[in-house]
Design a protein that fits this description.
The chain is an alpha/beta fold. The structure holds 2'-deoxyguanosine-5'-triphosphate (DGT) and calcium ion (2 copies).
Length: 573
């Protein structure tokens, strides 16, 4: 069967197209097709023979043609051409930010720099300065880029990890032998970054499952290949550990491998005091060694005298005490979310028309959806002028007549360097909801940045401070700001603070969101949608809120429309 071979080539094409800066939809189309081929159990050649390639998920005309070509000639000419254009070595150094494509090509051609290690050596020794056009500043940027690249190599955002885990689990299920399957570790806890992915399986045919796993096209290297355990390096760069366990120990193994280690230490202590021994194999009576629980997590916790604890809470951050006293929080769940309060359209830097956003929100069953494009000072993001915003509001009111979902006119309005808002009061007052965001001058001092945001929160029209620290995980540090002062101002003026659900942001992060919610500040969980499928990121925002111990009552967009609007307009003059 050529399924896996073709999947591997499609993964490579996606990488090459991405490096070349091609349309993201094309890049994704190749990745999705590769994932689907990984899970396809029928021989792709059989589908091709019936001329039914295009009936397969994710395969359009273009990709069907590539598959036909490979089946007939054993190669894909577009891929061959791209390989010549972007050699492997060049590809690897282009992953370093701060190194433009032109410089990368120059270093590759003239000095044979084909790895990040060589690039780093050259930059550190200073020899890189001999290359025409590379100055001290470029060199600094390259070194910074290398540091970020290294950090990014060691941990991955949980959003990306979840996608990889889901796709691997789907492939394993499709190829048979899998009974139960779950992702464990930090991925299951939805920690914002993940070191490696841990997957647990029960199976009557462990060997079959392990063999499938190590031969998947997305498995670049195999580190370990045992009878019930295997480790691979996934093509996205992360390690994945697979363990096959006995059904009667699945719950115990899931509990153990979900962690965190610190949480597990506490649970084992509690078990010990009851004369029980807890391990990845089950809960045992210490004296008789008899197993008293292990098949499900719930029975494992019950055996040690605790209610089941949601994985997002298992960080030894008070959850064990809460469980012992029956005080676990009733965490927010997906079905409590009534709408999204941060979304873009092609009026600014979103990639879909207004109508499509509304339809997508309707399809999710939301009660309301905001339209919150950028304001005029965000020029790179295509920010709207006041006139354009008024035009958009008119358009929204007109579209409203055809819809039952409430379309909220909003703006993601810039907080200017001095803390004033990018639009004056007479524009803001026409909006249903106003978001406030920092998009410029990230390098202000802590007192400047804090005063800037506090001033914005004093504005009577501002409702929600969005992505409050500006961090991009693995890419950009948060700006320097005193969050305690920001929270105090939000509390005083009755503003909400966002958990931005975009996997690159997750901003506020869990511990800060927990603090804000404890202070009584409403938390908005928003996707900041730029592509329609970003609406799915809501799940990640909810997971972050759950890690922050947040309940439905603390979530702004769990409010019904009327209450939401009453809240939003209460401080308007
Ligand atoms: P990561 O991969 O760094 O993002 O974090 P985790 O939590 O996924 O850690 P990992 O993959 O090393 O191990 C998965 C879980 O297995 C971990 O959360 C708890 C459990 N575990 C691993 N090693 C130990 C250990 O030495 N002692 C205990 N109590 N638990 C462990
Ligand atoms: Ca892990
Ligand atoms: Ca692991």
């Amino acid at each position: 069967m050529k399924n896996f071979e073709i999947a591997k080539l499609f993964y490579e094409m996606a990488d090459l197209l991405e490096i070349k800066g091609e349309n993201v939809f094309r890049v994704r189309a190749y990745r999705r097709a590769a994932e689907n081929l990984e899970s396809l159990t029928e021989d792709i050649a059989a589908a091709a023979q019936r001329d039914e390639l295009q009936k397969l998920p994710g395969i359009g005309k273009d990709l069907a043609g590539k598959i036909q070509e490979y089946l007939a000639h054993g190669k894909i000419s577009d891929l061959e051409a791209m390989r010549r254009e972007v050699p492997r070595g060049l590809l690897s150094i282009m992953e370093v930010q701060g190194l433009g494509p032109k410089t990368a090509k120059l270093l590759y051609d003239k000095l044979g720099v084909d790895s990040v290690e060589k690039l780093e050596a050259l930059a550190r020794s200073g020899d890189i300065l001999k290359v025409p056009g590379i100055r001290e500043k470029t060199r600094d940027n390259i070194l910074k880029g290398i540091a970020t690249w290294k950090a990014g190599q060691s941990r991955m955002s949980v959003g990306a990890a979840l996608q990889i885990a889901d796709s691997l689990m789907q492939a394993l299920k499709a190829h048979g032998g899998v009974a139960q399957i779950e992702v464990a570790g930090s991925t299951r806890r939805r920690k914002e970054t993940v070191g490696d992915i841990d997957i647990l399986v029960t199976s009557a045919e462990p060997e079959r499952v392990i063999t499938t796993f190590v031969s998947l096209p997305s498995a670049l290297d195999v580190f370990a290949h045992g009878e019930t355990k295997a480790s691979i390096r996934h093509q996205e760069g992360i390690q994945v550990d697979l363990r096959v366990v006995e059904p009667e120990a699945f719950g115990a193994a899931l509990q153990y491998f979900t962690g965190s280690k610190e949480h597990n230490v506490r649970i084992r202590e509690i078990a010990g005091k009851k004369g029980l021994k807890l391990s990845e194999y089950g809960v045992f009576n210490e004296k008789t060694n008899q197993r008293i629980a292990g098949a499900t997590e719930a029975e494992v916790y019950e055996a040690v005298g605790l209610p089941w604890i949601p994985p997002e809470l298992r960080e030894n951050a008070g959850e064990v005490e809460a469980a012992l006293t029956g005080a676990l929080p009733d965490l927010i769940e997906a079905d409590a979310i009534r709408g999204d309060l941060h979304a873009h359209t092609d009026w600014s830097d979103g990639h879909h028309p207004l109508e499509k956003l509304i339809a997508a929100a309707e399809a999710r069953g939301y009660e309301y959806i905001i339209v919150s494009d950028h304001s005029k000072s965000s020029t790179v993001a295509g920010g709207l002028t006041a006139d354009e915003l008024r035009e958009q509001i008119r358009k929204i009111r007109e579209l409203q007549k055809k819809h039952t979902i409430r379309i909220l006119a909003g703006s993601e309005c810039d907080i200017l360097a001095d803390g004033t808002m990018d639009f004056p009061a007479d524009v803001l007052k026409e909006l249903d909801i106003v978001l406030a965001a920092v998009h410029s001058r990230f390098k202000q001092t802590r007192p400047e940045m804090t005063a800037r945001i506090v001033k914005a929160l004093e504005n009577p029209y501002v409702n929600i401070l969005v992505h409050p620290t500006g961090r991009l995980i693995g890419e950009r540090d948060p700006y320097d700001v005193d969050l305690e002062q920001v929270f105090a101002a939000a509390k005083k003026h009755g503003k909400a603070i966002e958990i931005n659900a975009s996997p690159q942001r997750l901003d506020l992060k869990d511990v800060h969101a927990r603090r804000a919610a404890e202070l009584g500040i409403p938390i908005a969980i928003n996707t900041d949608t730029h592509y329609l499928d970003n609406l799915d990121n809501m799940a990640l925002g909810i997971a972050t809120a759950r890690r922050a111990w947040i309940t439905r009552a603390q979530v702004l967009n769990a409010l019904p429309l009327k209450k939401l609007l009453a809240w939003a307009h209460k401080s308007r003059p």
